[in-house]
Structures are given as structure tokens and as C-alpha cells.
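Hi Y.,

Following your request, here is the sequence exactly as I used it, all 170 residues.
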Amino acid sequence: SHVTKICGYAFESCSKLESVEIKRDSNLNTIEYKAFSDSSIKSIFIPTHVKKIDFQTFHNCKNLRKIEFPLDSELFLIENEAFSCSAIDEITIPSSVTKIGSLAFKDCNNLRNIEIPSDSQLKTIEKNAFAHSSIEKIFIPPYVAKICDQTFFSCFNLQQIEFAPNSQLQ
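Below is the corresponding structure, written out as C-alpha cells. Let me know if you'd prefer a different format.
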């Protein structure tokens, strides 16, 4: 629980790495770019003090089905391609997240359910953030001011988009 940083490329391409256990009381606050990309992890818990999911941190994790965040998560940024080409089927975006980067969930073919809480601080959803995913519905919280180009490109299963009544979308 005393580890504070997982450096870039730390577990990249570890094809036999299926399990990563991070304690709930962990002091981890940084997971750098491509730290787990192309690994075989199946699930991961992101502890409270992690501030951002960096560039391609979980890119191409073909077995990654579950991402868990605590309710008191301090995460504020999901960087470009953070979960792209992974196997996640659902995710709850912590309310502290202010930006979802470009291609963050692109080609997540199993991703059907995205929960964004109504008290979310989310302000920006960058281009192609959910492109080629299988999402069926999404709630856009009130502080989202910008949804960029092709955010939902080729989301053929998307049936419902709900905007907060007090939406600040520009």
C-alpha cells in the first residue's frame, strides 16, 4: 500500500499477467502512460488518490473486463486512448472526472453501459471518445460544455442520450 507510482511501460505486453491487486488503502497516485497496455489483466481497482488514467494505460488489454473506482475517487482525467481496444463491458465514471480524452474508449466493442453520476464534474468529452463502442445509452451531466467531433462515431447500438435539465452544453 506504500507504492505511490507505477511508471510508464511497467507492465506493458506482460501477456501472462492476469491479476493486479491494489489495496483499497493504497497511496498510489500515479499510473503512467502504457503502464498495463497489451497485458492480459482481467480487472483492476483504481485507488482513491490516483488523479489520472494516463495515455494508453490500459490500451489493447483484450481481457480487461472490469474497472473499479471507489466512491471517493480523486480521478480528474481519463487521458487519450486510456482504455481503447479493451474488453470492458461497463464502467462508472467517477464524479470527480472533468475530462474524457480523445479515443479514451474507442474500439471497446463490449462496452455497453457507461454510468456518469448526476453530480459529475465532467466538462469535456473529446473527439472519438466512445467511437466504435457498443454503448446503448448515456447520460450527459450538467457541467458538460463540450462534446467534440465524432464522440459517438459508429456507435450502432446507441439508442438513448439523456441530457441533464440544467445542461451547460455549448
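The chain has no helices and 13 strands.

Thanks again,
Q.
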